[in-house]
């Protein structure tokens, strides 16, 4: 009797003291996820699919931070699964160096958010924090790299991987988990405002660098301490909208879609990417955010994607409000969820959801949280964030990327060495730090940045280096014109830094998606960046007139383009003594350019996108389908500078091409007097295929360092996948006839030719 009574007394205690399976770290992810899912109410499940704007969720007073009342009120109603851009600071968020978060405070805010979520909700589920990271974590005090188009100009997989290791670590040190990037949009129209974020016009280069970025971010191994979930952007074909209008309709065929636009995403997913973001556009009338074929068939069934899909900001809302394919927002949410979207960035649309698909989406998100260990380790160390974010090592990596991103397009005078004693550095981008950082950039401590003028002054320390702005990017005021001309006349050489800008300011009006409104009344510098599409590609304002006036002084003229898209360079290509493209080279771009001009570094960048002679030629991407078009009445159809192009301070010789069944090899020799990098490129030109192919398509490339006089055998292994193309049934078909092989230093400069038998 005693024994039975004792058991009855202690049984409730034993039952209630048992740890739920989802809180047991010894169990596998699937068991923990299904257990947690079984305990959740409908509202708790729905809330896990919501990702809201995060910068509103904290309060800061001096060095003290806490969660905001808005966050507390939100969590009472719906314990959300994710926040976006908690640490973001820019004119849109109205977070400045004074009101925003440095890395130490960011880590403290992350901890407070997790602590509140765990302690004040029924199930204690930690929150995913997602951050923008196109060229460094978009937050105060982080390392700023060149933008995507500059990273692509390095053609260096290892360096891109190293850059993303830095970005991932800085994000995790501050308590976030998801990096929005890399951007894998194929950019065929330079009028589009977001070319700067992309890796250019080619699927192979974009895919290789995208995969390298994902590997640098952890390769999908969420057990690593500094691994992040890479969110690939934007799925799909976002960079090829009609007229270059951001987010507009895309009209491409299914073969082109699969062979070119989807190719980089598949490569990055094979490398371990666990998240993908839908795009604002439609493809042949189907909104990408509600495209069941893309998200369920291609992404999940064909590619075996195991991660989760997030909408772009309010893009589910756009299925209703912009595309008008459903009658209301609730219908848009249902359509997107059923099509395969798991997370709503913006949090407006998922209000009435069906059970089975809801559970599937919630499972995908919760499983990633368990894999990352957030239930056991939700907090970070603010002291480590303070000392290890933007460390000297990280800044050194950013400088390496900046060095390798600069493309030398024309040269009759560089390197300058110590020949000149008076240098004039002029132009709107010569001494404007935000103009060289690109869009999606946080406010900066300018003492940490190096402008082009500062970089030149530092590298030419024995030379009299002086600066004058002269003109602006867009403004047509001549206020500084004469000062700059006087400086130029009194110099021995002129370095003019022109181009564009994606620098936002606090006067700009923004859409609710963060894209800028372009009224045409505000003559700030910004002519690029999200929402700033162009109708023309020439230099804006008085810049070209300024260059011509500088040339008229008779002094040697070096022109540097700082830009987010390939602007027209016809005048500079003909008249400048040297021409360089530096894109947006990041925080240390000034140092990189100073080293190149001095001759301390031999430029090694190559174009990842073609430079048009005229906007009337567009599109001018190199891998167009056959047949070759006719020239225009006024102009030929060739790019001014083709894909893959870039010069060096030395010369390289290619010889002895050998093409076998399984490998392509040749000799590469540095025949100049300067050590340097060459980027050998191998192009395929297939014959007699069942559907029309490009005249040439990049298949292999490498970045090879050779000392002066050094020679190496370069070998590329031929893989089965390289001998396949997409046929009319959207299936992979193998080449049947011999494939023409071209080897050279750009898509136009082919110096060795051979034939490969499949």
UniProtKB/TrEMBL annotation:
Protein's UniProt name: Glycoside hydrolase family 3 domain protein
Taxonomic superkingdom: Bacteria
SUPFAM superfamilies: (Trans)glycosidases (SSF51445), Beta-D-glucan exohydrolase, C-terminal domain (SSF52279)
Gene3D superfamilies: Glycoside hydrolase family 3 C-terminal domain, Glycoside hydrolase, family 3, N-terminal domain, Immunoglobulins
Domain Fibronectin type III-like: 678-747
UniProt entry keywords in alphabetical sequence: Glycosidase, Hydrolase
Source organism: Leadbetterella byssophila (strain DSM 17132 / JCM 16389 / KACC 11308 / NBRC 106382 / 4M15)
Similarity comment text for this entry: Belongs to the glycosyl hydrolase 3 family.
One GO molecular-function entry: beta-glucosidase activity
Pfam families reported in the protein's UniProt record: Fn3-like, Glyco_hydro_3, Glyco_hydro_3_C
GO biological process, one term: glucan catabolic process
Coiled coil feature spans: none
Lineage: Bacteria, Pseudomonadati, Bacteroidota, Cytophagia, Cytophagales
């Amino acid at each position: 009797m005693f024994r039975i009574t004792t058991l009855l007394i202690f049984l409730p205690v034993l039952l209630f003291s048992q740890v739920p399976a989802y809180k047991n770290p010894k169990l596998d992810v699937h068991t923990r996820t299904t257990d947690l899912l079984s305990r959740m109410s409908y509202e708790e499940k729905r809330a896990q699919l919501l990702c809201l704007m995060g910068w509103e969720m904290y309060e800061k007073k001096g060095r003290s931070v806490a969660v905001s009342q808005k966050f507390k009120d939100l969590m009472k109603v719906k314990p959300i699964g994710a926040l976006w851009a908690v640490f973001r600071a820019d004119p849109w968020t109205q977070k400045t160096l004074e009101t925003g978060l440095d890395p130490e405070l960011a880590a403290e805010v992350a901890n407070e958010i997790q602590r509140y979520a765990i302690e004040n909700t029924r199930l204690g589920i930690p929150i995913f924090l997602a951050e923008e990271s196109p060229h460094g974590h978009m937050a105060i005090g982080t390392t700023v790299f060149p933008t995507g188009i500059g990273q692509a100009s390095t053609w260096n997989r290892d360096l891109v991987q190293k850059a993303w290791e830095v970005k991932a670590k800085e994000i995790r040190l501050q308590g976030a988990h998801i990096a929005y990037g890399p951007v894998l949009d194929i950019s065929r129209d330079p009028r589009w405002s977001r070319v700067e974020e992309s890796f250019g016009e080619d699927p192979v280069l974009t895919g290789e660098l995208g995969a390298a970025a994902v590997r640098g971010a952890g390769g999908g191994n969420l057990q690593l301490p500094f691994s992040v979930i890479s969110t690939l952007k934007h799925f799909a074909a976002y960079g090829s909208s009609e007229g270059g209008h951001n987010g507009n309709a895309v009209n491409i065929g299914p073969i082109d879609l699969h062979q070119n636009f989807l190719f980089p995403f598949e490569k990055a997913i094979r490398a371990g990417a666990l998240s993908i973001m839908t795009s604002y556009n439609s493809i042949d009338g189907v909104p990408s955010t509600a495209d069941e074929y893309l998200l369920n068939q291609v992404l999940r069934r064909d590619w075996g994607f195991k991660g989760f899909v997030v909408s772009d900001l309010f893009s589910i809302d756009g299925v209703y409000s912009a595309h008008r394919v459903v009658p209301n927002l609730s219908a848009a949410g249902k359509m997107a969820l059923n099509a395969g979207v798991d997370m709503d960035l913006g949090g407006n649309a998922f209000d009435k959801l069906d059970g089975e698909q809801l559970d599937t989406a919630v499972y995908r998100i919760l499983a990633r949280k368990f894999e990352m260990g957030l239930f056991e380790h939700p907090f970070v160390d603010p002291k480590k964030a303070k000392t290890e974010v933007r460390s000297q090592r990280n800044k050194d990596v950013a400088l390496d990327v900046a060095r390798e991103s600069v493309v030398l397009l024309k040269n009759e005078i560089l390197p300058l060495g110590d020949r000149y004693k008076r240098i004039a550095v002029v132009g709107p981008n010569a001494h404007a730090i935000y103009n060289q950082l690109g869009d999606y950039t946080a406010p900066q401590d300018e003492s940490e940045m190096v402008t082009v003028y500062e970089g030149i002054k530092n590298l030419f320390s024995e030379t009299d280096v002086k600066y004058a702005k002269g003109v602006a990017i867009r403004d047509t005021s001549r206020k500084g014109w004469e000062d700059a001309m006087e400086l130029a006349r009194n110099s021995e050489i002129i370095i003019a830094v022109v181009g564009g800008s994606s620098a936002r300011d606090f006067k700009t009006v923004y859409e609710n998606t963060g894209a800028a409104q372009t009224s045409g009344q505000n003559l700030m510098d910004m002519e690029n960046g999200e929402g700033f599409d162009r109708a023309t590609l020439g230099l804006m304002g008085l810049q070209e007139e300024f260059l011509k006036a500088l040339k008229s002084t008779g002094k040697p003229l070096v022109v540097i383009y700082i830009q987010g898209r390939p602007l027209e360079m016809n005048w500079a290509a003909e008249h400048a003594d040297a021409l360089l493209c530096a894109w947006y080279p990041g925080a240390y771009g000034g140092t990189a350019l100073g080293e190149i001009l001095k001759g301390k570094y031999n430029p090694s960048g190559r174009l990842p996108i073609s430079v048009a002679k005229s906007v009337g030629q567009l599109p001018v991407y190199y891998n167009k389908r056959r047949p070759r078009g006719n020239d225009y009445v006024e102009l030929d159809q060739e790019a001014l500078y083709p894909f893959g192009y870039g010069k060096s301070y030395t010369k390289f010789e290619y010889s002895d091409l050998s093409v076998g069944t399984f490998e392509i090899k040749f000799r590469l020799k540095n025949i100049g007097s300067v050590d340097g990098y060459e980027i050998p490129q191998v192009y395929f030109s297939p014959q007699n295929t069942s559907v029309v192919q490009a005249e040439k398509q990049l298949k292999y490339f490498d970045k090879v360092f050779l000392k002066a006089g050094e020679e190496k055998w370069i070998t590329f292994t031929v893989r089965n996948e390289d001998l396949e193309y997409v046929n009319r049934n959207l299936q992979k078909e193998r080449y049947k006839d011999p494939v023409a092989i071209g080897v050279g230093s750009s898509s136009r400069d082919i110096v060795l030719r051979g034939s490969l038998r499949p």
